[in-house]
Write a structure and sequence with these properties.
Blueprint (H helix, E strand, L loop, with lengths): L3 H8 L4 H28 L4 H8 L3 H8 L9
Helix pairs in contact: 1-2, 3-4
Protein name: Helix-turn-helix domain-containing protein
Length: 75
């Protein structure tokens, strides 16, 4: 996988198809990063409310997006 710097550079390139592919790759990378941090936060006992506030979404939205990936005892 390309680095964030490489992908960001491709976004500013002259080829629009390459730029769009770079944007899509950055989006996937950000989704993976968000999921990892949410899982870590839940493992450390952070509430869904606090996670949602940090992400700028409603609690239900954060829970719906991430809860199925996390085994946290149903908290």
């Amino acid at each position: 996988m390309a680095s964030v710097t490489e992908l960001a550079g491709a976004v500013d390139g002259e080829d629009p198809v390459t730029a769009l592919a770079a944007v899509a790759a950055l989006r996937r990378l950000l989704e993976e990063l968000e999921a990892a941090h949410v899982a870590d936060a839940r493992a450390r006992g952070t509430s869904w409310e606090a996670i949602a506030a940090a992400l700028g979404v409603k609690r239900q939205t954060a829970h719906r997006k991430h809860a199925h990936r996390i085994v946290d005892g149903g908290r």
